[in-house]
Write a structure and sequence with these properties.
It is built from 13 helices and 20 strands. It has about 375 residues and is an alpha/beta fold. The strands form 7 sheets. Strands 6-7-8-12-9 form a 5-stranded mixed beta sheet, with helices on one face. A 5-stranded mixed beta sheet has the order 17-16-18-19-20, sandwiched between helices. It has a two-stranded antiparallel ribbon with strand order 1-2. Strand 16, helix 6 and strand 17 form a beta-alpha-beta unit. Helix 9 runs antiparallel to helix 10 and helix 9 packs across helix 12. It is elongated and about 90 Å long. The two termini are about 50 Å apart.
Length: about 375
Amino acid sequence: MTDTVYVNGKELRCGYTTGTCAAAATANAARALLGGQVPEANCVIRTPSGKVLKLAVETVSVSAEAVCCKVQKDAGDDSDITNGLYVHAEVRLQPQGITIDGGSGVGRVTRPGLDQPVGEAAINSVPRQMIREALREAAEEYSYSGGFSVIVSVPGGEEAAEKTFNPRLGIVGGISILGTSGIVEPMSEQALVDTIEVEVRQRAAEGVKHLMITPGNYGEEFIREQMGLELDSCVKCSNFVGETIDLAVANGMEAVLLIGHIGKLVKLGSGILNTHSRNADGRMETLAACFLRGKAGLDQRAMIAEKLLECNTTEEAVDYLREHAVLDKTMEVLIERVESTLNHRCYGKIRCGAVIFSKQSGLCVCTKEAERMFADGTFCRGRLGST
């Protein structure tokens, strides 16, 4: 794979997906089975994105009944846990139709809301279509009118899956065979958003209408240990607060409660809904502006504002505001701005609330909508999503 992309000023090499590997291995195995000879060492395959790849294919086994080929996953410069694993495809002839299933190292779906139904192998729709297309082309080449059976397996896939989102999503026993374009773009933000979408869609399929979201581990720890809430229906949104709200609306959620550390959520006070520092910071500027609008500490306003702008962390800033007895007023202004940002993003289609905390101080402030959600039982101590 020679294609590259530029990320943060660096040129990074693209790779190809497990779905592309499975399709290429299937293509060579089918040709070998129909042609009665050892398959070629390479396979030319067109990805859904239109790119044509020439992949190295190794033969695992050949018999009159079945041929198994494998392709090594190459993730390029992406930090993909499946990089280097071999994707196997064993192809057999059958009277009619095409059946595709997973073998060892390929996960199986145990919860609704994913790309495949419960009980099916975690081989997503696009890779399945790529496999079918590879079989169709092989059948045409050899004037074959019968059917095929394909078993996709990934040695080492079960161990690799423990380091992925699969256990959290209810995919057990191995990795997923994925890919929408057939190509892996290094450090792709879209890949993270796609994972969040899967989780939100899964919660919706389970009947959840009230979704709790948090940027990461700090939030989950606070939810569990400080708020006494379950994490069953909580989704990690990473830095993609805005996109996750959009997904909640699109999947029919009625309420979203965002819980996060002030270092992330303070940015919403300036309308920043992608909280990665690469996109925007403005943490101290936002706190300084909220302090000034709070009209507290009038005799020391200039000094306090200047000191806030010099703080390195929001934890430091919170301590400083408390020391000068202006934290409450500052938080009041901040949470009003955060609530306005959330309501603007969801266009009032769903209820949106937020809870902001700091590691050292605990709960800082809640939006009015969040307080109403707790008061009316939309979110309560116990399983999330219950009313």
